[in-house]
């Protein structure tokens, strides 16, 4: 019975995570593009953009709406389902394993601290899927900003170029910083999400059915917690993943510290 329950719960988490991840990626992608471009610009000795508004204005003027703000979306759209489902799947599995190890029913609610650990485990697991997805995404997002270099023609072109120049390991460039970001960021995500829901539930008991607006608020707080917790690690990751060589990484790291 426990094994069947774990399987059913896990399948549900995969489906829900896949759908929510794909939809969320479409909505958030233009904002992510501006963020990555600003991080890339700041790592250069002569920044391309002076502000967020300057980045938005120049991107729209030079590249238009889709090519400017949604370029590179095929990669995260393909990876969004895997990413989100992996997060929820591994988070649920971690909770179930802790409950089983403690002799509890698998749906027993864990203390807040243990849920944070489950979130950390979920982030570490998902980072191995997320690194190549974000690498391709970041390369396409800043591709048009690189002067004197041939632009990528497609997602497949990026993958072929990386494999040719760096081999399969090249697809996991930035893995360490992605893992650090995801371990802390995902713990913060689930922590804020669970804490907000706990506040809404109050003393109403474990059978309380959350309302739609409560789930939306919890999701919003989770997003804020994720992005605010380890944003410096995200900056370093994007600088690494948009660089061309090791010397390029070191040089940009020096610029970031100034």
From TrEMBL:
It is a multi-pass membrane protein. Signal peptide: none annotated. The keyword Transcription does not apply. Keywords: Membrane, Mitochondrion, Mitochondrion inner membrane, Repeat, Transmembrane, Transmembrane helix, Transport. The keyword Oxidoreductase does not apply. Pfam families: Mito_carr. It comes from the Eukaryota. InterPro entries: MCP, MCP_dom_sf, MCP_transmembrane, Mitochondrial_Carrier. Solcar repeats lie at residues 8-97, 110-199. It is found in: Mitochondrion inner membrane. Belongs to the mitochondrial carrier (TC 2.A.29) family. This is Uncharacterized protein. It comes from Ogataea haglerorum.
